[in-house]
Design goal:
With 467 residues, the protein is of the alpha/beta class. It has 15 helices and 23 strands.
Length: 467
């Protein structure tokens, strides 16, 4: 609890239980901050907050409520200071805070860093997959965004601080950076995995998307590091704007850590990394070149913090991300959110195929997605047979399926709207040495708690058919 008289030297001698920016989250005794978003204004939800138990409000205009209030010039600008006041600034409690942004790989890299640093040290992770540390995994399905709302972020960090963490990694989306959901938190190390024309969401165009990503530079401490992918277009974009120390990874031999001699299998990957003129062999259960890039990024961060490279190599050998290029009983499961990710998946499968590739392809319906046709075209070109299905509905109607299939000239596909039946059909078609590749909304549906189809249970039922 905190007394409001210590906030902005107000004259309100009032104890509050917590601070909230969403009226629906307010509980008895909370302070409600009337944050202004793009599509809504917290000032319009004061009545709702009061009904939920708010005992005071932060506003930046006069409102006709008798509730105790603090009037500020701009609510959004003071939210980070309010969070620091209530929770304390995380930088004062945690030795290293790492921010990870990029179009692809954020979730995997964050979880990689968490696993690596927990091998000999202590680390926490906050992002798409929830809150994790050495002692517990808390999957927060009520987190609707990659970078959670600032009040939930600070509350989550406050939970993790009780574990006496030395390190914390935060998945930082472009929109989270743009909206300053990270508050006054500064990063000791910032990572940009890559940038491509996808995941723009609410961004007006690619320039707005890149400008939001560039805010990562301002979130890095003066003596901190920015880590970049030497092989990606983002390298030059960020290098030219950055006044912090830069380290790089990739296949390029000019990178601070680079990889070579990649040997791919459907069950794992071996490759060599070169760091400070020494070569090291890495073995991992992760699949494909995306996995190699993600490992190199995570390694470079951990090495910069001071972790021994041999410990990194040992800690990564059994790592894999459920649903992220995962081999489960010889079925490959992934959620390629961009056309670049799908293309790399399919290229990997083609390089490792012995007979046929049977794919189940789906994407969630979203009018902002402009690459449905590409998904349909490339999947039917790379795969022997494709089943298009939905992420989370059985209505025999799908914008995604319509746009993925309407321009197809091939006939090596069918449409099955029921996701469960689509997966079962693919598995029934599989013969020895065929590859079944499942994409789509496994994670998304689980997160939203709607129409979740568990692919693992379906695969288990076919295990007696040597899948």
């Amino acid at each position: 609890m905190k007394n409001l008289k210590t906030l902005f030297n107000s004259n309100l001698d009032l104890e509050i239980n917590n601070v909230k920016i969403n009226s629906k989250d307010v509980k008895k005794g909370d302070l409600f901050i009337c944050r202004k978003g793009i599509n809504s204004d917290g000032h319009d939800f004061i009545s709702d907050a009061i009904q939920h138990g708010a005992i005071a409000i932060i506003v930046d205009r006069n409102v006709d409520f008798s509730l105790p209030k603090i009037l500020v010039n701009n609510v959004n600008e003071v939210i980070p200071d309010i969070m620091d006041w209530y929770y304390g600034n995380p930088n004062e409690k945690i030795k290293n805070i790492i921010g990870v942004t990029g179009t692809n790989g954020k979730t995997t890299v964050c979880n990689l860093i968490n696993v690596l640093l927990n091998y000999k040290s202590s680390c926490g992770c906050i992002g798409t997959n929830g809150i994790h540390c050495k002692n517990y995994d808390l999957y927060q399905y009520d987190f609707p965004n990659t970078t959670v709302a600032i009040d939930k972020l600070y509350n989550s960090i406050n939970m993790l601080k009780k574990e006496n963490l030395e390190n914390l990694v935060i998945e930082s989306s472009s929109y989270g950076l743009q909206q300053n959901r990270l508050g006054n938190i500064m990063f000791d190390i910032g990572l940009v995995t890559n940038i491509s024309e996808a995941h723009m969401g609410e961004h007006s165009d690619m320039q707005d998307y890149i400008s939001s990503k560039l805010k990562m530079i301002d979130k890095i401490k003066k003596n901190g590091y920015l880590i970049l992918n030497k092989d990606d277009i983002s390298y030059e974009i960020f290098k030219n704007k950055c006044n912090k120390k830069i380290l790089s990874f990739g296949r390029n031999k000019d990178a601070n850590l680079y990889f070579k001699d990649v040997e791919e299998r459907l069950t794992g990957t071996d490759f060599v990394i070169v760091y400070k003129n020494k070569e090291y062999t890495v073995k991992t259960k992760m699949l494909g070149l995306n996995g190699v890039y993600n490992i190199c990024a995570a390694f470079l961060i951990c090495l910069t913090i001071g972790m021994d490279i041999n410990d990194c190599i040992y800690a990564v050998k059994d790592f894999y991300m459920p649903g992220k290029m995962e081999n489960y009983k010889n079925v490959i499961i992934d959620y390629p959110a961009t056309k670049e990710s799908l293309k790399k998946d399919l290229e990997f499968l083609v390089r490792n195929k012995k007979k046929k590739i049977i794919a189940v392809i789906s994407r969630n319906d979203d009018i902002r997605i402009k690459e449905y046709a590409y998904f349909g075209d490339i999947s039917t070109k790379f795969c022997d047979y494709v089943i298009f299905t939905t992420d989370r509905n059985k209505t025999n109607s799908s914008l995604a399926i319509t746009d993925m299939t309407k321009e197809l000239k091939s006939n090596n596909y069918e449409i099955i709207y029921d996701r469960k039946k689509a997966i079962e059909k693919a598995l029934s078609l599989k013969k020895d040495n065929d590859i079944v590749y499942l994409t789509g909304g496994e994670y998304y549906s689980r997160k939203k708690k709607v129409d979740y189809v568990n692919p693992y249970e379906i695969i288990d039922k076919f295990s007696d058919k040597r899948i």
